[in-house]
Write a structure and sequence with these properties.
This protein is of the alpha/beta class. The chain folds into three domains: 4-135, Tetrapyrrole methylase, N-terminal domain (Cobalt-precorrin-4 Transmethylase, domain 1); 138-247, Tetrapyrrole methylase, C-terminal domain (Methyltransferase, Cobalt-precorrin-4 Transmethylase, Domain 2, 2-Layer Sandwich), CATH 3.30.950; 258-297. The chain is 40% helix and 15% strand. It has eleven helices and ten strands.
Length: 304
């Protein structure tokens, strides 16, 4: 939980204006290292040191970073539970011409972290918003994965419950059939990684994928392979640390082409039987396959 001693933004009169005219004003989104302190940019460090106030997801984590960097700027917490309440006070500071920096626990702010509502509110008022870019686990994992780097689609965390996760994966698979072909990226909790990989294989087929673990840290690992290989590995070897999961786009000869399999099955079977055959062959959820079979069977040129 965030440090409640620093949970409230200080009153406007308690935040002194910083000296110097070269520092940015307004709200500045500052990226911090995702594991290696050497990845802190000079610009990010200077911005944090010169700001009137730094908003942090967890002030305890940021205080340790400040201690290592010799920064003494005032900290206040901004997290999912208090962001809406903090916005009016922060906007008041920005209207005064103060500099307020926003950081997350690691990496680039707003990427799976709080701050979007504050940024949107500042933009709506025409207040200056800028960024000091830096480390990102998403982009680091992407360039190390060996998977196509563009287009890519970052989706945050998968739903924690299997039914919701399978439904979300099925929606993405349907989007792929409609023409969206991209490398898919998620963050995932280590204790859910094996089951998420298994669900991904059931939905997307045995595609090329990669798992980035502890990126930029001492025990960094990027494991690449088919979803079946990764699923078996992490089922047998429980992972630790921060996880980024990537799944490649459909391959040209996609063995899990649902429409193609259903078209073949519908040529000699009822919709119900064709759906049952394809669901058994692919491991896809039976309801998903049956719904797609119905849609295909309703087309004028469908097999009779």
């Amino acid at each position: 939980m965030p440090d409640e001693a620093c949970a409230q933004v200080p009153p406007q009169e308690a935040v002194p204006a910083s000296a110097g005219s070269n520092r940015p004003t307004g709200l500045v989104l500052v990226s911090t290292p995702i594991g290696n302190l050497g990845d802190m940019t000079a610009r990010a460090r200077e911005t944090l040191a010169a700001a009137d106030l730094v908003l942090a997801e967890d002030t305890r984590n940021t205080a340790r970073l400040f201690s290592a960097l010799g920064i003494a700027t005032r900290l206040a917490a901004l997290h999912d539970h208090n962001e809406e309440a903090q916005i009016p006070t922060v906007l008041g500071l920005l209207r005064q011409g103060r500099t307020v920096a926003l950081v997350s626990d690691a990496g680039t702010p707003l990427i799976s972290d709080p701050g979007f509502r504050l940024v949107r509110a500042a933009i709506a008022e025409g207040l200056p918003v800028s960024a000091a870019p830096g480390a990102s686990a998403v982009l680091t994992a992407l360039v190390l994965s060996g998977l196509p780097p563009h287009p890519f689609l970052f989706l945050g965390f998968p739903p924690p419950r299997q039914a919701a996760r399978l439904a979300a994966f099925a929606t993405l698979r349907a989007a792929e059939r409609a023409g969206l072909a991209a490398t898919l990226i998620w963050h995932e909790a280590p204790h859910r990684l094996a089951e998420t990989l298994a669900d991904a294989q059931a939905t997307f087929g045995d595609r090329q994928a990669a798992v980035g673990r502890e990126l930029t840290k001492r025990f960094e690992e990027v494991r690449r392979g088919r979803l079946s290989d990764l699923s078996a590995h992490f089922a047998a070897t429980a992972p630790r640390g921060e996880i980024t999961l990537l799944i490649g786009p459909p391959e040209q000869d996609d063995p899990e082409d649902l429409d193609g399999k259903l078209a073949q099955a519908l040529a000699g079977n009822s919709v119900k039987d064709a759906a049952a055959l394809v669901a058994a062959a692919t491991g896809l959820p039976r309801k998903l396959v049956y719904a797609r079979a119905l849609a295909l069977a309703a087309k004028p040129d469908a097999p009779r």
